[in-house]
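Folded chain entry —
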Amino acid sequence: MAVLYYSDGVKVPSFKRREMTNWIKSVAALHNKKVGTIAYIFCNDEKILEVNKQYLQHDYYTDIITFEYNEEDSLFGDIYISLDTVKSNSEQFDTDYNEELYRVIIHGVLHLCGINDKTPEEQECMTRCENEALKLL
């Protein structure tokens, strides 16, 4: 299957797509999943706010929204990423922009793998899984 990269109102970030796709597949495999079709939609804050309001009834900006359509052990989903928020988060947390971008990219995959981040305990688990995934990149 495939990992697809789209843009809506922004330029797709510069990274080696084949390497990124292989990394995503490797992380999925660590969680006993395989990649079906995952579509990344890179956008700006206005678009992610529109998606957040329309589909989740949330009236706030966010860095990522993941829509899951999984089938058994195969990952299928649409992942919206606001590059504006990724940039502001990298500045706020004093991290490299690309590191923040890769963290958010894999965050969506981890959601598709069933890892949540609503409670402090879940957030801790998510961060640990993100860090482990980033080491593979």
Observations:
- The chain has one domain: 3-135.
